[in-house]
Each structure stands twice: as structure tokens, then as C-alpha cells.
Design a protein that fits this description.
CATH class: Alpha Beta
CATH topology: Rossmann fold
Structural class: alpha/beta
CATH superfamily: Vaccinia Virus protein VP39
Strand order of the largest sheet: 3-2-1-4-5-7-6
CATH architecture: 3-Layer(aba) Sandwich
Shape: globular
Number of domains: 1
Order of helices and strands: HHEHEEEHEHHEHHE
Oligomer: single chain
Number of strands: 7
Largest sheet: 7 strands, mixed
Strand content: 15-25%
Length: 254
């Protein structure tokens, strides 16, 4: 277990991106980066779009093979595009990779955002969803403290199964599901260091209870093949056509 000394813990955070700069957040970010890098290293194309945690895009997508990388956020954030994720000003079938990082849990219209992601992705394009796992110690703390609206436990934590149901209805195929990070949801690294045995035990014996869900989907476009029903079939001519009686013995020029 390694902790970054970049920043110290504070009592409150403005948003999830600021929380990732804390020592606890840095630990989860290192774990996430290790899992995400092999996935993005095999992703090729021209355009990628990250929604949420725009300031972390450069680090997370460092090994991505997509040529042009963009981020989307609100006006006060340093992003490439300022727009609503539910109404993207992007042409359909034009983006190779979309990353939704902690955005589904922080919005009131998750279905609209997923529909827009499906629209802008090219056929077989990748969608990566990163969010907290409600079936974990982090989800348990969220269950008791979400009403406080404290980052990172504010918002709605969706289970991987529920998100998977939405995605299949839209036309996505799931390719990978990873659980990331087994650090207890404690904001004081000095205490967490003494609980390293708990982290190792959960990683080895309870792998499904990781702090983060890392879900990878691909846009599935199936060709539509018309099915002809028997009751619709009509014969234009009968099986045997009668030969005309007039001119039966006439010779035709060939």
C-alpha cells in the first residue's frame, strides 16, 4: 500500500476531482490507473471524450492510443468542451472512446447521458464507466452518510447489475468488469496504515467488494434482416401457366 504526499487530508472537498488529490484518493487513483492502462493501450481511433474529473484525464489516458483526446465539463472547469452531457454537440458515430468518470452518480439524468454516449460512439466503440461500488465498504458508508452531501459519498451509487441492464437495453455489450481498490473508507491515512491486513484480506477473499467499479462496454450494431412470415407470402403466378391457343403453330424470329 503506497500513499502520495502530494496533499494532506482536509475536512471537506469541493468535488470528486479535488478528493482524488488527497492521500486516500491518490491511492485509489493509482489502483485505477493500473487497471485502466492495459484497456486503453488496446484502444485505437481518432477521438476520445472524458466526462467527469477532467483534470485527471491526462494522467488516466496517458497510455491511450486514441489520437485526439477531449474532456467535457461545466463552464468553470478547464475542459476542452463546455456542454451538457445529455445533449452533446458532437456528430453521431464519430467518437471512438467515451469515459464516464463518477458522472452517473452525480447526475439526475443518467439514461439521457448513456443514450448520448451510444449515439456519438462509432460501431464497436468503447464506453468506460468508473464509479463507486455500492456493494462495498464505501457503499456502506454512503448508505449512512449520503444525506450529508459530503464528497465522495454524495450522489447515487448504482450497482453494476443495474447499469448493465441499462446498457443492454441501449445496445451495448459488456466486455470487462473490474473491482478496484480495497482501502477502507477512512480519510485518515495514519489509521489506514494500521489496517493493511484488512485491505489484503478483502483483496484475496472478497474481491467483489472493491471500492470502484470499472466497466467496459462496446457499442453493438447488429444488421437488421427482414423476416418473411408464411402468411404474408403471395405468389404472383400459379405454378403452371397455360400456353396461349392463338398462334400456337406460329414461328417466331429469334
Amino acid at each position: 500500500m503506497r500513499f502520495s504526499k502530494q496533499t494532506t487530508e482536509s475536512k471537506g472537498f469541493a468535488n470528486i476531482e479535488d478528493w482524488y488529490l488527497s492521500e486516500t484518493g491518490q491511492y485509489l487513483l493509482e489502483e485505477l490507473e493500473a487497471r485502466l492502462t492495459p484497456i486503453l493501450a488496446t484502444t485505437f481511433g481518432y477521438y476520445s471524450l472524458q466526462v467527469g474529473c477532467a483534470g485527471l484525464a491526462g494522467r488516466l489516458q496517458q497510455g491511450c492510443r486514441v489520437k485526439h483526446q477531449f474532456t467535457l465539463g461545466e463552464a468553470e472547469q478547464a475542459t476542452s468542451i463546455e456542454a451538457s452531457p445529455s445533449m452533446l454537440p458532437i456528430a453521431s458515430d464519430s467518437v471512438d472512446l467515451v469515459i464516464l468518470m463518477h458522472h452517473l452518480s452525480d447526475t439526475n439524468e443518467p439514461h439521457a447521458i448513456l443514450r448520448e454516449a451510444f449515439r456519438v460512439l462509432i460501431p464497436e466503440g468503447k464506453l468506460v464507466i468508473i464509479d463507486f461500488n455500492p456493494k462495498s465498504l464505501w457503499g456502506l458508508r454512503h448508505f449512512f452518510q449520503s444525506w450529508l452531501e459530503h464528497v465522495p459519498f454524495k450522489g447515487h451509487f448504482y450497482t453494476a447489475k443495474r447499469i448493465d441492464d441499462w446498457m443492454r437495453l441501449l445496445g451495448f455489450d459488456q466486455s470487462r468488469l473490474h473491482r478496484v481498490g480495497y482501502l477502507p473508507p477512512i480519510q485518515k491515512p495514519a489509521i489506514v496504515r494500521h489496517l493493511s491486513w484488512l485491505e489484503k484480506g478483502m483483496r484475496n477473499w472478497l474481491p467483489l467488494f472493491g471500492a470502484l467499479n470499472l466497466m467496459v462496454y462496446s457499442k453493438n450494431i447488429s444488421p437488421l434482416t427482414p423476416v418473411r412470415h408464411r402468411w404474408v407470402t403471395r405468389k404472383l403466378l400459379p405454378a403452371k401457366v397455360a400456353r396461349p391457343s392463338v398462334g400456337r403453330n406460329m414461328k417466331y424470329d429469334r
